[in-house]
Design brief:
Elements (H helix, E strand, L loop, with lengths): L5 E4 L4 H12 L6 E4 L29 H13 L3 E6 L9 E3 L5 E3 L31 H6 L13 H16 L4 E4 L7 H9 L8 E4 L19 E3 L1 H12 L22 E3 L19 H12 L4 E6 L29 H10 L4 E6 L7 E6 L3 E6 L5 E3 L10 E4 L8 E4 L9 E3 L3 E6 L7
Helix pairs in contact: 1-2, 4-5
The structure holds ligand LM2 and calcium ion.
The site of calcium ion has 6 residues, from helix 3.
Amino acid sequence: MRIGTFVHLFEWSHGDVAIECEAFLGPKKFSAVQVSPPNEHIVGDEWWTRYQPVSYALESRSGSHEAFVDMVKRCKAVGVDVIVDVVVNHMAAGSEGVGVNGTHYTNRNFDPLYSPDDFHHSESDNQSNCQVNDYNDLENVQKCDLVGLPDLDTSSPKVQKTIASYLDNLLEAGVAGFRLDASKHQESEALGQYLSQMSSTTVPYVFCEVIEGDEEAVKAEMYFDYCDVTEFNFAQEVGSNIVSPGKMKFLSGVGSSWGLIPSDSAVTFTDNHDTQRGNAPLTYKDGPLYDVFNIFLLTSDYGYPKLMSSYEFDDPDQGPPDSSPCDGHGWVCEHRRYGGLVAWRISAGENEVSNFQSLDDGEGDVICFSRGNAAFVAINRSEDTFVLKCGTETNLRAGTYYNVLDDNESTIDIDESGKVSNDIEIGAMGAVALHLGAMHEY
Ligand code: LM2
Ligand code: CA
């Protein structure tokens, strides 16, 4: 069971990530931060320029090589690992272009890294390739170009060596983990091969971005030997029980019995930078209902949760604001709302969900559960204040606890038999979360 919590600080600059590690993520005990691809990408204001690599120089919209190394060091110093988004399925599209560090490229030619024969290509012509358009066909998904992006031949020894040396470079800088972008579009054995060719003695945490679709050729389990895997169905399945009222009571036992991948392999999230522009059931735009979803994400015993931290957008292509996150305009900073739950999860530890109760007489909008004797949460998804009755079982030992979702403003007493000692009001779309690590001293 994963007791950590990590956060994707989408499109934050290296300098701002470093500050956030020191000011918030470290003190709150986040295990890691996922950063946007730090390597050279095409020029342009859209966020997705970051997914069109031009070289592996650590120069990007987020900052310079030097700023990157400084960020990694400062985050590490406060106990926060840096997980890099690694884009190696493909390179930048187009017949010609230039990267943010001044590197020129032409069609499928990225001197000195890759030449046209290092890419998958048509039999008779190394300047062109098939397009990904048939998700029932493994070869098509993995060897053709994804949205016109020249597809690297990840099975080639030369390409594997080049990727492994990029990864070694990142580890050298102190990076602790990788998100392997578009893993679904890379043969899993080839992905395993380049990972095994790293020479660094650091063993990174690796998770693979695989969107498993019913009946599709690529299966999440193909990757389990090499990495954890993004479980996109968690957001869909759990989300559908949060979007409509009356279904919170069905959230007991989220896991393999729901058709999800094994918990130990799963990276979970409510939304990510793609789904918040696509089919995510809930995003920051949904207000408090989205908070309910994130609170469930962080208190669930399933998977390794990743919080999304966004900037506001109307146009889905829109890049990040140029102000500082969290105090500047245009940033959402979702992760700041749930800081107290990170320590809650650490207290909950390896304990599975127990004592799951539907509290509103079967209406299904208010639930509570415990994680062993270490942590308790009650979540009110209804539009009205709910009174958590005196006598509700928490499994906690007697004492006074802070509600960690309330910046420790309020306390709750638990009696000798582990029950709530007074009636407690939980606001609409609100929650109370108590754990052994946040007991009131007296
Ligand atoms: C991913 N995971 O597998 C990323 O999470 C996702 O954000 C990336 O797409 C994708 N794979 C490739 O790394 C994004 C964005 C696309 C964008 C690509 C490349 O969602 O819209 O495609 O990055 O920048 C853009 C244009 C598209 C065009 C393509 C090539 O939107 O219309 O296709 O560039 O020029 C002709
Ligand atoms: Ca591929």
